[in-house]
User: What shape does this take?
Amino acid sequence: MSTLTDAAPAGASGAVTDLTYREAINAALDDAMAADSSVLLMGEDVAADGGVFKTNIGLVEKYGLARVRNTPICENGFIGVALGMSLVGMRPIVEIMFADFLPTAGDAIVNQLPKYRYMSGGQTAVPVTIRAVGGATGRFGTQHSATGESWFMHLPGLRVVTASSPGSAYALLRAAINDQNPTLFYEHKGLYARKGPVVRGVAAHIGAAAVLRAGSDVTIVATLLMVERALAAAEKLAADGIAAEVIDLRWLRPLDLPAVRASVEKTGRLVIVEEQVHAAGWGATIISELTIGGIRWASPPRRLSLPDDLPIPYTPTLEDEVLPSVEAIVATARVSVGR
Amino acid sequence: MSTLTDAAPAGASGAVTDLTYREAINAALDDAMAADSSVLLMGEDVAADGGVFKTNIGLVEKYGLARVRNTPICENGFIGVALGMSLVGMRPIVEIMFADFLPTAGDAIVNQLPKYRYMSGGQTAVPVTIRAVGGATGRFGTQHSATGESWFMHLPGLRVVTASSPGSAYALLRAAINDQNPTLFYEHKGLYARKGPVVRGVAAHIGAAAVLRAGSDVTIVATLLMVERALAAAEKLAADGIAAEVIDLRWLRPLDLPAVRASVEKTGRLVIVEEQVHAAGWGATIISELTIGGIRWASPPRRLSLPDDLPIPYTPTLEDEVLPSVEAIVATARVSVGR
Amino acid sequence: MTADTMSARLDWYRTMVRIRIFEDKVQELFMAGQIQGTTHLCQGQEAVSVGAIAAMRPGDVQTNTYRGHGEALALGMDPEVAFAELMGRSKGGSGGVGGSMHLIDFSKGNIGANAIVGAGLPIAVGAAVAFQMQGKPNVALSFFGDGATNIGTFHEALNMAAVWAAPVVFIITNNLYGEYSPLRTTTPIDDLARRADPYGFPGIVVDGQDIEAVHAATTEAVERARAGKGPSLLEMKTYRYRGHSRSDPAKYRPDGELEAWKARDPIEILAKALIAAGDLGPNDPVEIRNETQAEIDQAAERAATSPFPTLEETRPYVYAD
Amino acid sequence: MTADTMSARLDWYRTMVRIRIFEDKVQELFMAGQIQGTTHLCQGQEAVSVGAIAAMRPGDVQTNTYRGHGEALALGMDPEVAFAELMGRSKGGSGGVGGSMHLIDFSKGNIGANAIVGAGLPIAVGAAVAFQMQGKPNVALSFFGDGATNIGTFHEALNMAAVWAAPVVFIITNNLYGEYSPLRTTTPIDDLARRADPYGFPGIVVDGQDIEAVHAATTEAVERARAGKGPSLLEMKTYRYRGHSRSDPAKYRPDGELEAWKARDPIEILAKALIAAGDLGPNDPVEIRNETQAEIDQAAERAATSPFPTLEETRPYVYAD
Ligand SMILES: Cc1ncc(C[n+]2csc(CCOP(=O)(O)OP(=O)(O)O)c2C)c(N)n1
Ligand SMILES: Cc1ncc(C[n+]2csc(CCOP(=O)(O)OP(=O)(O)O)c2C)c(N)n1
Ligand SMILES: [Mg+2]
Ligand SMILES: [Mg+2]
Assistant: This one.
């Protein structure tokens, strides 16, 4: 068990540094492994040259090849291995190079990790963290560009979390590693170079969304890469006197409905910005639950999503075209507030 | 290519017979294999003793072991095999014994089947049908009871369809087999013994939901086993003068939003009855899309779903308890209409 | 034979009889509707479960399958707790939410009974690698069927175990059928032990009806793993007397096959040996059977008195804090 | 050597040179930003693609991977169409939506270039079984890497192929690395051909730098499959000159390894043989290189003039009717 808690953060606690998203993930891994010798990182080439996305620089030198463990190419198998490790005292972190490969491990993720404690009647905890690198803008084509963020959010027993900035990446990854339950942690490959403040040694609260910008006219909810676009849009809207409240959803399971509801109760308007098809995603889930809850919509909620019927293309021009843009967010928010 | 069309149905066309759900599936398989020699059925023990759920009785005797092909236990592998067959002129039907095993074939279902035509720039069709047997009430426990119906509905390139009765099972399975695109066809293991009229030789329209009972007070949308419960509830409600419109959603992709919208525009009220967790499912998708579309809710939509945070238990008493019941549907519809 | 090994063998014998009678009782209760859903019984395979598990030491763990009652009982699970689980009662090992396919007891090293074919292998490898990292002298066993050797996780698990020289022993309970399919219709070879070769560790064919052979082969593999020499694959040739599950009549079996295997019943074989060695009197088998029958009947009765759990009771089983 | 086989070998030579220069050009265009995302190049592996595909007959098919430019060109894809695809242009083989990892041409038997490791194997088995059912004399090949032999689909595909005696040939392009990982760090054996044994069909080690050896071994396996004798596994020992993808500097390779392999360059080896046999003049290689360079440069230029597709243009690629 990690000794890290929100109350009494461990390590270089509280220190604030400016790090890139990549460095923030590296720092979270480093701090977690330093704080708890049962924490390990495993996956394809995680120890090779800092890993494919260079998030693991310096770790193998510090913790060795047993705790920074290269695996053969077999996602379903090595997530099963991580599960087995977690049953006897280890806290594995599994790196999945592209979120698109998560379905390759479908059984481990759907039938094993979330149900393992339950099937045993609560005899064990399953402290496994899966880091999945997702998202478009990389021109990686249709089999390497999904965020996959909502694929597993319906599974009781699992936690699902997304990181949109260096600061949240650090705090959320520490929280995921520290948690006793299987957690899918989503990174966006388009964010690795972003820089921002990181508070070392402090883990985020599980299940808490973050209001990144306060506003009273319209609520914009986003995750991952879409968060910075939502913030940029809010900036532009402000210039026109429209006050947008921007929420980084962060957790898909548990889903922070109270936070979104509180905001929409104030604004009466909602724009969902999601890098995924709308069907069966977190955006649809939020709109459905709020509507079921009887919320008063001042104007119908709106969404910016990937096309309903199109996979993500390699074609650079088209990949840009299918993603929700700052301009589209601005335009949609304007329609929502009616000016 | 099957010669079957809605216009000119093949085989014992138009003949209406009373069959069980199991027999209806058997008839659809039989008629499709008789009509087109490129159609084959494959899966674990599909040829053994009529198959595990006895849906395949008589087929191996008629079509032989090559076209009714037992496979080793390797879902991901044999769905990949079916994909390969479909690229060179065959029309495979894959039987997945329990829908819970679909994630075992996650890569084939998420990254291969729906994207294969797209990645080739439309060079090929992928006429693969996957029959997945899902659903609770069987006391099969947490790894054998999921409907899994919404797991893949967000994937462009795929079709997803559910069968709630003998008649729809026949017509929808013929449509799935006849279609040029990969289709996930969901059966419910709790329905096999149900009897009902079946029109031989006629395929359903792709993407069309079915209004099974007309009513003006409240719309109830359901799939699979929940459809008969919705109908039973409507019967009871009618006795109290509440006219419920019951829609069998049937297709999750393409999703028949127009049909549901038309009904809710009339009733202003909606009750979703789903044998799944609400998050990231078709129920949430429908409520979200209708709300985004600006529909006028006379009263907030309501849902009956599986518990948000509980896997399906083996415990007979609890398995019954977690499923939406006729009584719960009646009660919820009453609250919705306010009497 | 030392007094020690003698009493060990008597324990084996009693445990095999207990498993046999437990499974017969399960069938009876299933037919009576007291156990619902499905059952996968292991009559005929008792020597594999008991002989292999007898090679485990404290701290060792194993994973098994939906056909795991034999392993669960061999590891010492109280039949009452097992029956309660099969009946879905609070007193069950998993509080009644697991059922027949999930007899699990972490306190006895039974860290998993999986209903997904092949899923238990990587989990065992993970436990083994963890022991290695923790510097513990422990070993993980994984029990699975012949049909499971055709699914991807089998290959992935054996490959990782070899690469990491994990202290794990893979045990194929080859009962010649995967559900209704004879081995040869889904598998291109007869001796599955051969499937160890591409990973560079030993694969050994074992007479699964002879508990002495099972125990000897498993002990060697377990100690090899404990010594840091890596994994082994053991193929136990055995047979399941009943159908695959529930009320499967097993029509797919050729005439005489069942009888031929029953002629080499693992319980009879050990009884003969013990009697020949004078460690068991000629009437002891009948007595042990009767004692055990009474024990099992009472266990089932007591289990049936345990209440069904409430939903509230089961919520803590989902998330740990 | 007959005139026929001679001209065949000259074709092989020209094709290998074309692939080499194509890949070098891809790297150049990638660095220039005209090709985006990622590339996986095959310089050094040309003999495997060309020699194996030369064993195919009309109606035969194959699947390959994200590192499939060699196979695509060996199957006769027009370099302009290939470049256009890599640039995401309308004229590309997949209309520009596929990119570098998906050079596909059904009209030439190239039914798949997959970006998921191991996914192509079952697809090839499926095509092979379909040919068998259709009574066609055709065969399916599947090209994949050494790292792919560790994922479940490898095992599942080989097992099914064996059970059904499918006319399929599995070709491991063993270039000693899976991404940045040396084979031995992820795989417990050196000769991957050994991995055929548990399925009861031949596994053969082949010198992947010698196109004659590649062609001979593949021809034997293909004709064996065509004759209904079932699958084979061929391990082609070769090497990729460049890093795994994009701008990977391949720092993980020991000093001298690259040079040692370049000393056995597949193009050079065939050139020597052809010159020795008098089928190629001493200056021909330079001339052929120059001709090909011009051809490739022009193809790239023409490809760049093709427009990017519109979304509307790509919609029909999703669903067929
Ligand atoms: C991934 C998966 N596919 C299919 C099944 C259905 N199923 C349950 S047991 C079984 C046969 C397994 O045979 P074997 O491995 O020999 O074990 P045995 O039942 O003989 O003990 C099958 C196909 C499953 N549980 N999991
Ligand atoms: C299922 C899956 N896991 C991981 C990857 C990422 N990946 C792409 S290529 C590769 C290495 C494959 O090595 P090998 O099979 O030897 O082929 P090579 O690249 O050497 O041609 C990996 C791990 C992937 N594409 N698919
Ligand atoms: Mg078996
Ligand atoms: Mg390689």
